[in-house]
Amino acid sequence: MCNALLVQRGVTDELRGRALTFVMSATFGLTGAGTVIAGALMPADGARWVWLAGAILFVLASTVGYALARDAANAARPMQAAAN
After folding, report:
1. Which of 4, 30, 49, 70 could form a Cys-Cys staple with 45, CB 3.0–4.6 A?
2. What's the pLDDT at 81?
3. What pLDDT is attached to residue 33?
């Protein structure tokens, strides 16, 4: 599920535009910062190490995202009454 869909479902109508703008700003800002950092590291260590560091960060971020999404999905389910 993409960030925009999560924001649309989790934010009230009055704040939805501001929340989506924040998500977009964070995404674009971090993309720019990542490009600058990768460009600075490239001459020092070479491209392969930068790609490896990016892959490791991607795996960590996807693991955290999966755990958060799984918890949110479990919280959204109605609780089952215990059968007697």
Report:
1. 49
2. 56
3. 93
Given the structure tokens 């993409």, which residue do they identify?
Answer: 2
Give pLDDT tens digits for 42-82.
887 778 888 888 899 999 999 998 888 877 666 656 656 55
pLDDT exceeds cutoff 70 at 84 = no
Do residues 46 and 62 touch, judged by C-beta distance below 8 A? no
Backbone angles phi, psi at 79, to 5 degrees: -75, 140
Q: Can you say whether the dihedral through the CA atoms of 4, 7, 13, 17 is positive or negative?
A: negative
Tokens of 2: 């993409």
Contact 43, 51 (CB under 8 A): no
Rounded CA-CA distance 62/70 in Å is 12
